[in-house]
């Protein structure tokens, strides 16, 4: 009798991953469809696929409670595929555009990011928010919202509940900023470029920057996109600093000697930027990598939502909400002072 061949380890591992990945992919496709429906019906997107995927994932987790068979694939999307997405994001950014803007603007944006990080950490400490969630809020508000939160989370060993709760609150705050900036614009008495810089300094995602700056003309959109690009470029250095600090703290504990100072995906992020800056990435490949990064990030958001317990989010509500609100107010105030000071 011929024995039935055993599946290879790689094939068996893939079979374990497929159910959870398929579930996350289904949620991601639905989120994309809802985003497209908003554009078709309303002429603009109020809730992006990233945030929609997170909310749908939370809803599925609350109503259906996926069992253990789904867990390996969900974990793969929330960690491995997310890290690949962060690495691919590096191909989206042009160092040439930043260098042409001059060192003064880059220094101002870097200073704003440092201020926002410090101010948010102070607010989180005052209201009693945990250090992990405070750092996640700080990175999200200071740099680029969801992407920064998800990039910083593995560096500081944040739990999926921390990530999901933080993204939920910061996403709500980000939507308020996007809607509020065009309404406040006439009261601020700023020029088109200044409005764009203000949007680039305060709004999270690139499409949201375009939506917030578009009412003030094409110059505002161009200025906002450039400043937003500079903020996103701070993602690598900030995560690297957090990683070094985490490594120093870990060396005093039982895990010393096994700490990776800079995660591989942050190194890959910088390498992708370098390849594009040197002209080694063809435009078509850079565009494909950017699309891949966006798709994998939506997939990861669905996975993070599936790992969030709604009850845990509600229990952490008040300190987290206060930190997000005051962090955004501080960022808006400082950005307005900076824009007026720059003329």
From TrEMBL:
Pfam families: Cons_hypoth698. It is a multi-pass membrane protein. Belongs to the UPF0324 family. This is Putative sulfate exporter family transporter. Keywords: Cell membrane, Membrane, Transmembrane, Transmembrane helix. GO terms for cellular component: plasma membrane. The keyword Transmembrane applies. It is found in: Cell membrane.
